């Protein structure tokens, strides 16, 4: 019996050490993510959420390069109103809910190749200029963002229900026809 317990003990120690290491790495990543989000939100004076027709369906002059966000120019939103379905400004409580949702970072691990973006989060500074954005495709689980929001832009993909709670009603053409 003594020999058996000696063989088992190292396996348990290795498993425990591995478990603790994973927990440590996970917590370190969460702390870094939280710090980055908090740092970006220090500059936020206003946040808007947009819902719009899939950018693939926009006229070429309004969307000349699909891989670039062309509706933000010089810190201002320049989007043809015919594409907009919803546009809401968040109140302070909603901003905190959004921030906490990003920190929790609940996303799916799948991604598809479609990228038909229909939503964007715009972050405004004290001069009412857009200093950051996150664009989302909830269909394929894809996102694009300004460099300063890139490290956690994927976290916004877990916020579809939060968008609905905030008043966003448009999530694609199928919902629009119901």
Secondary-structure element string? HEEEEHEEEHH
Radius of gyration: 21 Å
The biggest beta sheet is recorded as:
5 strands, antiparallel
Query: Low-confidence stretches at least 5 residues in length (pLDDT < 50)?
Result: 19-29
Distance between the termini: 69 Å
Q: What is the averaged pLDDT score? A: 83
The count of DSSP E runs of length 2 or more, i.e. the number of strands, is: 7
**Strands ordered across the widest β-sheet:** 4-1-5-6-7
- SS content category: alpha+beta
Helicity level? 25-40%
**What is the beta-strand fraction?**
15-25%
Shape label: globular
Task: Count helical runs.
Answer: 4
Sequence-ordered SSE layout with sheet pairings:
Blueprint: H1 2-41, E1 46-52, E2 72-73, E3 76-77, E4 84-89, H2 92-104, E5 119-124, E6 130-137, E7 142-145, H3 160-166, H4 173-176
Antiparallel strand pairs: 1-4, 1-5, 2-3, 5-6, 6-7
Helix pairs in contact: 1-2
Structure summarized in a few sentences:
The chain is an alpha+beta fold and 178 residues long. It has helices spanning 2-41, 92-104, 160-166, 173-176, and strands spanning 46-52, 72-73, 76-77, 84-89, 119-124, 130-137, 142-145.
Would you write up a description of this structure?
The protein has 178 residues and is an alpha+beta fold. The chain is 36% helix and 20% strand. The protein has helices at 2-41, 92-104, 160-166, 173-176, and strands at residues 46-52, 72-73, 76-77, 84-89, 119-124, 130-137, 142-145. The chain has a five-stranded antiparallel sheet, with no helix packed on it. Strands 2-3 form a two-stranded antiparallel sheet. Strand 2 (72-73) and strand 3 (76-77) form a beta hairpin. It is globular, with a radius of gyration of 21 Å. The model is unreliable at 19-29 (pLDDT under 50).
């Amino acid at each position: 019996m003594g020999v058996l317990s000696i063989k088992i003990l190292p396996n348990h120690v290795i498993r425990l050490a591995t478990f603790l290491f994973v927990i440590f790495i996970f917590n370190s990543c969460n702390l870094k993510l939280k710090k980055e989000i908090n740092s970006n939100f220090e500059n936020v004076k206003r946040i808007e959420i947009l819902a719009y027709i899939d950018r693939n369906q926009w006229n070429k002059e309004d969307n000349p390069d699909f891989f670039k966000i062309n509706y933000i120019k010089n810190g201002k939103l320049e989007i043809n109103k015919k594409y907009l379905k919803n546009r809401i400004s968040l109140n302070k409580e909603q901003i905190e809910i959004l921030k906490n949702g990003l920190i929790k970072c609940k996303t799916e691990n799948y991604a598809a190749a479609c990228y038909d973006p229909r939503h964007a989060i715009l972050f405004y500074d004290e001069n009412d200029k857009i200093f950051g954005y996150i664009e989302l495709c909830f269909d394929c689980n894809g996102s694009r963002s300004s460099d300063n929001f890139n490290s956690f832009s994927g976290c916004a993909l877990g916020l579809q229900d939060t968008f609905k709670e905030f008043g966003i009603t448009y999530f694609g053409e199928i919902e629009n026809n119901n």
